[in-house]
From TrEMBL:
It catalyses: cytidine(34) in tRNA(Ile2) + L-lysine + ATP = lysidine(34) in tRNA(Ile2) + AMP + diphosphate + H(+). It comes from Comamonas suwonensis. Gene3D superfamilies: 1.20.59.20, HUPs. The N-terminal region contains the highly conserved SGGXDS motif, predicted to be a P-loop motif involved in ATP binding. CDD domains: TilS_N (cd01992). Residues 31-216 form the tRNA(Ile)-lysidine/2-thiocytidine synthase N-terminal domain. This is tRNA(Ile)-lysidine synthase. The lineage of its organism: Bacteria, Pseudomonadati, Pseudomonadota, Betaproteobacteria, Burkholderiales. ATP binds at residues 35-40. Its main location: cytoplasm. Pfam families: ATP_bind_3 (PF01171), TilS (PF09179). Its EC number is 6.3.4.19. One of its GO terms (biological process) is tRNA modification. HAMAP family: tRNA_Ile_lys_synt (MF_01161). It is an enzyme of class 6 (ligase).
């Protein structure tokens, strides 16, 4: 039997979700990445309640476990019940050699969401719908904390410690994470208040995955020691995001000076911190690759001692190699 205190908690949870949705202003129509789990179910139904007729759902079938077919059926039933247009995308999420299973699934999922969102859409009655302009993901405050802790464990810089952005652009779409300030339990309360069920991914309980160990073992301790850790960690990530943006602005200015491709002589005139910053920016913005700390250090050292015409630079960096070509640097992966 539900007590008054239980009812008050559910009402407080509902108010938090309603406040997050009131602050969410995506260009419509909006597609929601819908796994069938509690988080994406709450996001989909909250969006549908606010913008009826303007919200679509995309379900990615990873094909990695037997329960995946049941996930799809649940998504189809819920969307049919609420009259929400749904697309199902089947992907091969098996990881390549040297790639983690999580990274393979994430990359496959984003590519599938990109493709599905930009296809033609039809209502459950077969009526043509307007093209999707935005896409929303259901990561919440606990996911953000897990991302930050993983970044800390890997010795990430400010870009990594910025964790997950709440808004960005990709493939001509506006992408959003409107629930990053909401704890996961609040979303479950919101669904319970409405009598809505969801599916539980059995892998969420598998503590072979680092994220699951963080969720099961670290977050409860943080809750006891630092009750406001979600909001304070979020502020730290926001500070890191601002610092990362500032570093990128400085790197863009320095890249104009050293040129594209970068010339070795003006690179040598930079301080070590600006040299490392502009090299990271060049590799990421032009080639989409990121050096390890050891690779960047080796490259910076070689640039510093490159004072003769015959000095050779050929260093493994990211997914390819940086080498000297005359007066400049080049990167290739062929």
């Amino acid at each position: 039997m539900q007590t008054q205190s239980d009812a008050d908690l559910l009402s407080a949870s509902a108010a938090l979700v309603d406040a997050a949705m009131a602050a969410f202003h995506p260009p419509l129509p909006l597609a929601v990445a819908f796994s069938g789990g509690a988080d994406s179910s709450a996001l989909l139904l909250a969006c549908h309640a606010r913008w009826p007729g303007w919200v679509r759902a995309i379900h990615v079938h990873h094909g990695l476990q037997a329960a995946a077919d049941d996930f799809q059926k649940h998504c189809e039933q819920l969307c049919a019940q609420h009259g929400i247009a749904l697309k199902v995308c089947a992907i091969d999420a098996r990881n390549a050699q040297g790639q983690s299973p999580e990274d393979a699934a994430r990359q496959g999922r984003y590519e599938a969401l990109d493709g599905a969102a930009q296809q033609d859409w039809f209502s459950v009655d077969g009526v043509a719908l307007e093209p999707v302009r935005s896409l929303a993901l259901a990561q919440h405050a606990d996911d953000q904390v897990e991302t930050l802790l993983l970044a800390l464990s890997r010795g990430a810089g400010v870009a990594g410690l910025a964790a997950m952005p709440s808004h960005w652009q990709r493939a001509q779409l506006e992408w959003f994470r409107p629930l990053l300030a909401i704890p996961g339990r609040v979303l479950r309360d919101w669904l319970c208040l409405r009598g809505v069920g969801w599916v539980e991914d059995p892998t969420n309980a598998d503590q072979a995955y680092t994220r699951n160990r963080i969720r099961a073992q670290l977050l409860p301790v943080l809750e006891q020691v630092f009750p406001q850790f979600r909001s304070t960690f979020a502020r730290s990530s926001a500070h890191c995001a601002q610092a990362s943006e500032l570093l990128d602005e400085q790197a863009a200015v320095d890249l104009q000076v050293v040129g594209t491709p970068p010339h070795i002589k003006p690179l040598q005139a930079l301080t070590s911190v600006r040299l490392g910053n502009v090299l990271r920016y060049w590799l990421r913005s032009i080639y989409g690759t990121t050096p390890t700390a050891a690779q960047l250090s080796q490259l910076m050292q070689q640039i510093g001692v490159c004072t003769t015409r015959g000095h050779r630079i050929h260093i493994k960096v990211g997914r390819g190699f940086v080498e000297r070509r005359g007066l400049t640097l080049d990167w290739y992966n062929s």
